[in-house]
């Protein structure tokens, strides 16, 4: 059912719905994201430290900037946003797994798919961190670019595209992201606003998911990486379908993530069309939860959604309260969470 159709009233599910994890990507980063859990939640802390350690000499710098009130390198910079999003996604997912939660599906957006690949067993976390850092360094030296979120379908935007500006992501039927070099993208934004279209700049200084970042594609980095078949179904936002064994072990598939468009909306349609789920966003903010809440199957009550963290940073206590509130909703759904002490 297209997510724009009218839907009937909510219906009560017969039992606990299986959990699917949503892992956000570029644009979800913000200052102090999830920092209230570091040093407070032991599994989260250990998982973050594992990623920092895997990054070698840059790991302590990354951790310092993440925790700092005034980071040396801004968190929106690609060498901070990409590894920190990956680390937080990974650490939050490890936290809920330690609770005893057993997700039956994974769906990531952009770099969130790399984190999902680790959870599914396609990558070792250290290999994934090395691949990601190579990607971030390559992206960092490219000419300035950006992304633009537009309240319109992808087909409607075709007349506005120019030079290297392309559709970088399809998040929902009327939520599309454009990507391109800074100058052409600014011109497209001006044209859209002049035409009465609603659009906003995304927190990115790189033209993710566009040919403008083709120099970031590096299949050779995977030569020493062992890729495996997913042990948990992974819905790919690049194929808008469950990740096949063939694609999972194809280095070119993973290497092309920076340039290929993200099809999160179609992938979410496919996931929710395959059954009813309790969707849990395991990453900073609530961007994917927000998209999922507007989906027809969620609006009618067939599936449900919650997030582990607040929509924006509101201090350490807010992070902790949000995490425990999400645990409460999971228990209310019927998931016992034996690894989490009752409280």
List the helices and strands and how they pair.
Layout: E1 19-23, H1 42-54, H2 58-67, H3 78-98, E2 105-108, H4 111-120, H5 125-140, E3 145-150, E4 166-172, E5 175-181, H6 182-194, E6 199-201, E7 234-236, E8 241-242, H7 245-248, H8 251-255, H9 264-273, E9 278-281, H10 287-293, H11 296-299, E10 304-307, H12 316-333
Parallel strand pairs: 1-2, 1-9, 2-7, 9-10
Antiparallel strand pairs: 3-5, 3-6, 4-5, 7-8
Helix pairs in contact: 1-2, 1-3, 3-4, 3-5
Structural write-up:
With 343 residues, the protein is of the alpha/beta class. The chain has two domains: 19-141 and 216-333, Malonyl-Coenzyme A Acyl Carrier Protein, domain 2; 145-201, 2-Layer Sandwich (Alpha-Beta Plaits). Helices cover 38% and strands 13% of the residues. Strands 8-7-2-1-9-10 form a six-stranded mixed sheet, sandwiched between helices. The model is unreliable at 1-11 (pLDDT under 50). It comes from Kitasatospora phosalacinea.
């Amino acid at each position: 059912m297209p997510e724009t159709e009218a839907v009937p009233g909510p219906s009560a599910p017969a039992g606990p719905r299986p959990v699917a994890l949503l892992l956000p990507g570029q644009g979800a980063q913000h200052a102090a994201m999830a920092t209230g859990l570091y040093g407070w939640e032991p599994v989260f802390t250990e998982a973050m430290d594992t990623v920092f350690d895997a990054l070698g000499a840059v790991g302590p710098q990354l951790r310092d900037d993440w925790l700092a009130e005034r980071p040396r390198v801004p968190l929106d910079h690609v060498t901070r946003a990409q590894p920190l999003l990956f680390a937080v996604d990974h650490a939050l997912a490890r936290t809920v797994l330690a609770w005893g939660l057993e997700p039956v599906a994974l769906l990531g957006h952009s770099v969130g798919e790399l984190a999902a690949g680790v959870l599914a067993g396609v990558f070792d976390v250290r290999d994934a961190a090395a691949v990601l850092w190579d990607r971030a360094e390559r992206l960092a030296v490219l000419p300035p670019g950006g992304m633009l979120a537009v309240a319109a379908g992808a087909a409607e935007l075709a007349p506005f595209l120019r030079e290297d500006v392309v559709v970088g992501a399809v998040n929902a039927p009327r939520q599309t992201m454009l990507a391109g070099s800074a100058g052409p993208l600014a011109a497209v934004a001006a044209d859209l606003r002049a035409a009465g279209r609603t659009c906003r700049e995304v927190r990115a200084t790189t033209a993710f998911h566009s040919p403008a970042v083709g120099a970031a594609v590096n299949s050779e980095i995977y030569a020493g990486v062992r890729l495996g078949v997913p042990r948990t179904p992974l819905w790919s936002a690049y194929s808008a379908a469950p990740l096949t064994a063939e694609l999972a072990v194809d280095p070119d598939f993973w290497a092309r993530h920076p340039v290929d468009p993200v099809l999160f909306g179609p992938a979410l349609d496919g996931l929710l069309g395959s059954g009813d789920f309790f969707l849990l966003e395991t990453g900073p903010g609530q961007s994917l939860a927000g998209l999922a809440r507007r989906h027809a199957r969620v609006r009618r009550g067939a599936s449900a959604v919650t997030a582990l963290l607040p929509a924006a940073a509101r201090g350490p206590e807010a992070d902790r309260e949000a995490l425990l509130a999400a645990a409460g909703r999971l228990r209310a759904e019927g998931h016992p969470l034996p690894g989490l002490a009752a409280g």
